[in-house]
Amino acid sequence: MQSAIGILDSGVGGLTVVKEVFRQLPKEKIVYFGDTKRCPYGPRSPEQVRQFTLEIVCFLSRYPMKALVIACNTATAVALKEVRRQFDIPVLGVIEPGARAAIKATRHGRIGVIGTNGTIKSEAYLRALKKIERDLFVESLACPSLVPLVESGCGNINRIRETVHQALAPLQKVRLDTMILGCTHYPLISTWIGREMGDDVTLISSAEETARELSTVLHDKKLLSLSEVTIPPEEHRYFTTGKPDSFQEIAECWLGQPVQAEHVRLDIPVENTLR
C-alpha cells in the first residue's frame, strides 16, 4: 500500500493545501481530515485546540503516512511542536512557510497578517517574521467572521463582499505592500480579499507555500512516490466530523474532482494517542 500524505484542518480550509499538492505532486495519495463539527478553532482555548489536534492525529495514524501537514494556522501555533515530538515522519505547519514567502515578496517591509483570533493572539506569525527580519513593520488583524463565511459554502456574493469589507476595514488606513492569508480558509475567498486590499498589496497564501515546502522535504528525504501515474480521485480519502454532504459539495467545487466524504466520530482518549 502506498504511503499517503496526511493533511488535517479545522474544516474545509486545508483543501487549499490539498489543491496545491495535487498540482505539484499528482502522484501522491492524500488522506484528509476536516474537523468541521468543531470548526472554527480560532475562538477556542489553546488546550482545546491541542486536544482536538491530537485526536485527529491519532485517527490519521491508522493510515500509512510518509508526511503530515497541519493545515490549520491555529493548530500549527499551539500543537506543531508536540506532534513533531511524537512522529518519526516529517510534520509541517503553515506558519513558517508563509512568513518566509512574505519576506521574499515585501517591497518596503510592511506586512499585514490576517487570521483567526487564536492565530493572531498567539503572535506566531509575528515571531516567525521577526526571527528572520527584525526591522519589519507587521500589522496583525483577527478576522473571526471569515472562517464561518467559508464553511457556509460562499454562495452569496453580496454577503461575501460585505463580510470581507467589514473584516478588513481596520487595515485600510495602514500602508501595507504584502499580506499573509494566515488561515487556510482565506484563499477560498482571496478574490474578494484582493479586491478589498487593492492591486498594490501582494497576497501570500500559507497553503501554497506549505505545499511547496512539502514537495522540497519529500524530495530531500527521498520519499516521493515512485508511481508513474497520477493518483485517481477515488484513491484519496476525506474524513469529516461534520455533515459529509456539505463538506463534499465544497470540496468538489474547490478541487474540481469527485470527492467521497466519510463521517467520523472522534471519541478516542487523547492520552492513548501516538504511543
TrEMBL record:
Catalysed reactions listed for this entry: L-glutamate = D-glutamate
Any Pfam family from its record, for instance, is: Asp_Glu_race
In this chain, substrate is annotated as bound at 9-10, 41-42, 73-74, 184-185
Query: Gene3D superfamilies from the xrefs?
Result: 3.40.50.1860
InterPro entries documented for this protein: Asp/Glu/hydantoin_racemase (IPR015942), Asp/Glu_race (IPR001920), Asp/Glu_racemase_AS_1 (IPR018187), Asp/Glu_racemase_AS_2 (IPR033134), Glu_race (IPR004391)
Q: What is one Gene Ontology biological process annotated in the Swiss-Prot or TrEMBL record?
A: regulation of cell shape
Q: In which pathway does it act?
A: Cell wall biogenesis; peptidoglycan biosynthesis
Q: Where is the active site?
A: 72, 183
Query: Which GO terms fall under molecular function for this chain's record?
Result: glutamate racemase activity; identical protein binding
Which EC number(s) are documented for this chain?
A: 5.1.1.3
Taxonomically, which superkingdom?
Bacteria
Q: Does the keyword Ubl conjugation apply?
A: no
UniProt keyword terms in alphabetical order: Cell shape, Cell wall biogenesis/degradation, Isomerase, Peptidoglycan synthesis
Query: Which major enzyme category is it?
Result: isomerase
Concerning its family, UniProt says: Belongs to the aspartate/glutamate racemases family.
Functional summary from the UniProt entry: Provides the (R)-glutamate required for cell wall biosynthesis.
Q: What is this protein called?
A: Glutamate racemase
Q: Which organism is it from?
A: Kroppenstedtia pulmonis
Gene (UniProt) = racE
